[in-house]
Model the fold of this input.
Amino acid sequence: MSIQTETFVIDLREPRKKQGPKPKTGQKTQGAKGPRKTKMKPSRAYTLQVGGSRIRTQKELRSIFLSERGTRRPTLFVSSTAKHLAPLVNVAHQEAGNLRLFVWEKVAPERREYLRTLFRTVVSVGGDVPLLASDELAEVLSADNRGDLFVGGAVNRTEGVVVLYRGSFDRLSVPLAWFRRTSDVEPNFDDFKITDFGQTLRFGDFEVSTDAILYGFDSDYRSRVRQRQLELDDTFGGSLRRLRDLRGIRRLDFSPVSSKEIARIERGEVKKPRKATIQVIAKRLGVTPEELLTY
Done:
């Protein structure tokens, strides 16, 4: 998506309980059955470090949640635990808007189903969607271009697709057949992993960049990339070459248009190809003549 997702980090602080002075570590304290040593509580294995506006009170959470539900812009809530969402239980059910939720802990199935009535997308650590490692995931969610990186996904062999989650938690479905066309290396769909801070997908020994996937399946991303390339090559031949490379189609595959003619068009020697030639090229590439110019 071209619109930057608004991100709110739910970082509610627990109220402090009044208590007497704590004994020092290792100090003996008198108990019912005699002296004992105090135990050190284990520190959290991972501290939430994600960029975005932080929500620190339940009142603020409720207010922002209701406000964001009234907008259509993409909004992502990131929470270290699902228990912080308890204040939302009594919120009147209505259109979920464009809200997404990511939780840094495993969420019970019954709670996840409820959360899906509040959020359009719900993803959690230890859930159904394999995710990046915590350190890489935090890095991606803190990045300005998180919507152009992948954080998780799942292969569906029955439907023949892989469903990918971007850093904005938008979902993208990509046919498995597409990966087979892009390389001579056979993808192993039983060995799927997202690596390199969301920039690479791996299926066994087969690897493909996130950029290539988004360029092929996200017209908005393609338009942004093409806009950056306009100064270099904004010709019909440039669009033809980019799409032909993306599809893995050879110049000699456009019969009755010769490979020599295709090469001349790509080099810019043919400024305005004939209408019939454009139609043959577009049909072979699986797009309309108008769509071809958007690549």
Q: What stands out?
A: The chain has three domains: 1-11+47-127, 129-138+145-218, 233-292. The domain at 233-292 is CATH 1.10.260.40 (434 Repressor (Amino-terminal Domain)).
